[in-house]
Structures are given as C-alpha cells and as structure tokens.
Design goal:
Number of strands: 7
Low-confidence stretches: none
Mean pLDDT: 96
Shape: globular
Pfam family, one: adh_short_C2
Family: Belongs to the short-chain dehydrogenases/reductases (SDR) family.
Helix content: 25-40%
Strand order of the largest sheet: 3-2-1-4-5-6-7
Protein name: SDR family oxidoreductase
Distance between the termini: 32 Å
Largest sheet: 7 strands, parallel
C-alpha cells in the first residue's frame, strides 16, 4: 500500500494507544511521519525503530500539546520535512461530576488546555507550512454527542468543541483546498480502556458489532481521510464505533 507515498504527516500524541495505531497505518501507506510524545519515551523510541524498518522517514519529538511553546517548536522542526497531513491525536481523559467539591480543577483545566487550546494552537502553527490540498484530521470521541455515565461533562465538552471547530475550519480553509475532518472513536482496545477492563462487558451492550475496535481501525480511517480518495470530504464527523451511536 502506498496511497500516501511522498506525503509527510505530523501526529500529536503518537507514541501509544490510538496515536501509535495512526502512526503505524500512515507509515504502512507510505507516509513519512513525525509524532510527538510527552512521557512515553521508551515507547516512542520503540515505535521509531519499528517504523524505520518500513523504509519511510520517522521522527519522535518530545512536546506537550498543552504547552504552546513546546508544540510550536516541534512544528518548526517538522516543517523542515514539509507537512501535508496534520493529525490531532493527543488528548487527556479526566472525569468529575459537576457537584463534586473534591474535583481536581487543575487537572480539568489541563484537559481543556490539551484537548482544545492545544489543538487550536497546533492547527494555527501548522497552517503556514501546509501546502494547498493539505489534510487536517482531529481525534474526537463519541462522548461529544452522548453521556453514558456521570462525570464526563468536561471531557465531552472538549470533544464537542473539536467537532464545532472542525465544521468552521472546513469553511475557513476550503479555498486552500485543505480538508478538515474529525473522527470520533468508540470503544478502542488500549491500555487506557482495555477490552478486558472491569466495565467492558457493560459498555459493549451498546455496541452493535459486539466487540472493541483496535487502534488500527482508527488508523485506517485516518489514512483514508488523508488520501486523495477523500479529496471531496470536509467538515465531516465520522464515528468509528462499531455502531455504538446507532
């Protein structure tokens, strides 16, 4: 497969979980990939070694998406390769009921800084280096449109904000032939939400296909939206959730 050959992708939060699945799939499709990580240095190094074996260029940069200086510096480094595809995958998941006086408000604020402000900053910093016909893809959540249990209001609001930004940015950037779309994963088997977790059987009751997805399922959706096959798709919210939201 090489539908992304000679393209370069910048992926935030690409060292593990869904982000790593996206990095792997983009590389399998022939793209050169630069990805960021925060704490998972060993996983980032292991992923770089794995991708190098595919014969594409790969680089990992330590950068916190919630820190505007760090993400700007990372993009400056990445710009030396050119940036055709931006994937906003970095994100935090922090819960807390609105009436819980013991909520960690600083953690909730950090979630907003990474999930929303960080994405906005990343897009703004990347655009000067993105060519006509570029692709911007954000990773949201089905939680943006449904609240299956208490305490996810702050998280859900951040992902709903991304969906709203996606629709607006598609209008802003249409004249440059830059498409902007968002993918909303459902239950994906990662270390943060394992398929054998304590609540997995209960959550699966809402999934039409009856099983968890894998990070590569999100990666394949990203690689499609990044390709010429999706050149007339923009402003779209794509649920990749096994029918969880049907």
């Amino acid at each position: 497969m090489s539908k992304l050959k000679n393209k370069t992708a910048f992926v935030t939060g690409g060292s593990r979980g869904i982000g790593a699945g996206i990095v792997r799939q983009l590389a399998l499709e022939g793209a050169n990939v630069i990805f960021t990580y925060v704490n998972s240095k060993q996983k980032a190094e292991d992923l770089v070694a794995e991708i190098e074996a595919l014969g594409v260029r790969i680089m990992a940069i330590k950068a916190d998406t919630g820190n505007s200086d760090e993400i700007n510096n990372a993009i400056q480094q990445a710009s030396e390769w050119g940036i055709d595809i931006l994937v906003n995958s970095a994100g935090l998941f922090v819960t807390g009921e609105i009436d819980n006086k013991d909520n960690d408000l600083s953690a909730l604020q950090q979630q907003w800084d990474v999930n929303v402000h960080g994405v906005v900053n990343t897009v703004r910093y990347v655009l000067p280096f993105m060519k006509n016909g570029g692709r911007i893809i954000s990773i949201g959540s089905t939680g943006a449109t449904r609240s299956p249990y208490p305490g996810i209001g702050d998280y859900a609001a951040t992902k709903a904000a991304l969906a709203a930004y996606t629709r607006s940015w598609a209008r802003d950037l249409g004249s440059k032939n830059i498409t902007v779309n968002i993918i909303q994963p459902g239950l994906i088997d990662t270390d943060m939400n394992p398929s054998d977790g304590p609540f997995s059987s209960q959550m699966l009751q809402a999934v039409a296909l009856g099983h968890y997805g894998e990070p590569k399922d999100i990666g394949m959706a990203v690689s499609f939206l990044a390709s010429d096959e999706a050149r007339y798709i923009t402003g779209v919210t794509l649920n990749v959730d096994g029918g969880q939201t049907t």
